[in-house]
Amino acid sequence: MTFIRTTSGRVAAVALGLPVMLAGAAFGAFSLVGLQAHTSEHHHASYPWSGGTVSLDLGAGNAQIRAGDTQVVDVSYTEHYELKRPTAQGAAAAGGVSLKAHCPGGLYGSNCSINYVITVPKRAALNVHIGDGNLSLQGISAPVTARAGDGNISGSALASNSVQADIGDGSIHLQWVSVPTQVTSSVGDGSIDVVVPDGSGPYAIRQSGAGSSNIEVATDPGAGAAMVLHTGDGSIHVGYGG
């Protein structure tokens, strides 16, 4: 008969390694259950709008916001989650309409996101914050304040005279059909592309950052229409586009 002699070092290694192995197995089982339980739920809501700002505070997900001939804020959103559903709330008040959606924290929030499609009245100002995701704006006429952590911000057929768009990592692309008077945009790591109507301007443009710059529009430091553009590491382009 052969005996295996266990040293104190081996005992210590087993004592330390066993909890790690058990934790890894538990995490693997937890993840497998989450993947098997992946759920998508679609919801719709409508909120009366009597003036004021439409605000969206979204933890993780994408949002498409468009202007329409309406006096209500029409909201469709889809929740994607595994073990615990996110929280989504909406409320209408005299000061506007407020929408909030966030995923649960920790392991319960893995692979969770909420995607929105929102139609707002043309005169409704927007205040949007997205932690991680993309924002798309279409035909917005009122002032916009938009911030995102990681993702992209894009705007098409904009008629808003004032837009502030800031993002941590990603790109910003904004295209106007009427002349903006105040554009403020900042990107930590990514590019900025601004397109204004043909023949418009001049614009007072102040830019900063470590990337390249291509300004193709008429400029004048004393112009009433102003742009303040900053990129930490990326390109800046301002041009005409019809």
Walk me through the topology:
Layout: H1 8-36, E1 39-48, E2 53-60, E3 63-68, E4 72-81, E5 87-93, E6 96-102, E7 113-121, E8 125-132, E9 135-138, E10 144-158, E11 162-176, E12 182-189, E13 192-196, E14 203-209, E15 213-215, E16 225-233, E17 236-240
Parallel strand pairs: 2-6, 2-8, 3-7, 3-9, 8-10, 9-10, 10-11, 11-12, 11-13, 12-16, 13-17, 14-16, 15-17
Antiparallel strand pairs: 1-4, 4-7, 5-6
Could you please describe the fold and organization of this structure?
The termini are far apart. The chain is 12% helix and 56% strand. The protein has 242 residues and is mainly beta. Residues 1-35 have low confidence and may be disordered. The radius of gyration is 25 Å and the shape is globular.
In short:
With 242 residues, this protein is mainly beta.
Straight-line distance between termini = 90 Å
Mean pLDDT: 87
Counting H and I runs of at least 4 residues, what is the number of helices? 1
Please, what is the oligomeric state? single chain
Give the amount of beta strand, in percent.
over 45%
Percentage of residues assigned to helices: 10-25%
Order of helices and strands: HEEEEEEEEEEEEEEEEE
* Unreliable residue stretches: 1-35
Characterize the overall form: globular
Structural class given helices, strands, pairing? mainly beta
Radius of gyration: 25 Å
How does the major sheet shape up? Answer: 17 strands, mixed
Number of DSSP strands? Answer: 17
